[in-house]
Amino acid sequence: MEEENDHPNGKLSIVATPIGNMGDLTFRALWNLKECNVIYAEDTRVISKLLAHYGLRTSVQRLDAATEAKKAKEIIVRLEAGEHVAFVSDAGTPGISDPGSRLVAIVREALPETLIDAIPGPSALTAALSIAGIDMSAFTFLGFPPHKKGRQTLMKQIAISDIPVVLYESPHRIIKLLGELAKAAPKSRITIGRELTKMHEEILAGEPLELAARLEKKGGVRGEFVVIIEPQPAKKART
Ligand code: SAM
Prior knowledge:
The chain is an alpha/beta fold. It has eight helices and ten strands. Helix content is 34%, strand content 18%. It starts with 10 loop residues before the first strand and ends in a 10-residue tail after the last strand.
C-alpha cells in the first residue's frame, strides 16, 4: 500500500471498525491497525478480539468517554515523537454517538500541522439507511434519545419533521420509545434495523403500536436498533 508513515509530526488515524460482522473491516483499516505504533480503543476487549481475528499484535491502550481529554494529552506526546496512533471506538465509526470527536478537536488545536486521517467504514447509521428502502436524500440524525429531560421536546420535533428522523436505541428502551412515538406521531411509518450485519439481522417496518406488539411477541427484546421515523402522511412535503 502506498501509505507510509512519512509524517514527521506523527499521524492520528480515526479508524471505523465492524458493527457486528468481523468481515467488515476495510483493507485500509486493517493496514492502519497493523502498522500503527499503538491503538487507543474505547474497550480493549472488543479491539483485542478484532486483532486476534486478523492475527495482529499491535499494542492497545484504553481511551473511553471518561478519559478522552486526559488520554488526548498522552496521544499528543506520542504524535510529537513522530508516532502513528490509531483510535477505534467500540463499533462502527468513532465520533458517531461514540468517543472520538473531543480527541480530534484537542489534537487539532494542539498540533495543527499533524495529519488526522479518516479511515471510513461501517456505521449502524449508514448500514440501516442503505437497506431501509426510504428516500434518504435528506434526514435528521439525533443519536440516542435523552433518557429523561428533553424527551417530550424530541417527540414534538419528530412529530413535525417533514424529513425522516433517525435514532439509535437500546433494547431496554425500544418499547418505551415506540409507545411514545405512538402518542406523538401515531401514523408515522417506523423502520427498525436490528442486529445489522449479524446472524439475526432484520428490518421491521410498520406503525409504532404495531411494531411494539411485534417486538414484544418475539419474547424479550434483544439486540441493537436503528430507528427511522418517516414523516406522518400529512407532513410528507418533500415527496
Ligand atoms: N459509532 C457507532 C456507529 O458508527 O454506528 C454507534 C455507536 S452507539 C454507542 C451504539 C448504537 O448504535 C447501538 O445502541 C445501536 O443503536 C446502534 N448499533 C450499533 N451496532 C448496531 C447493529 N449491528 N445493528 C443495529 N444497530 C446498531
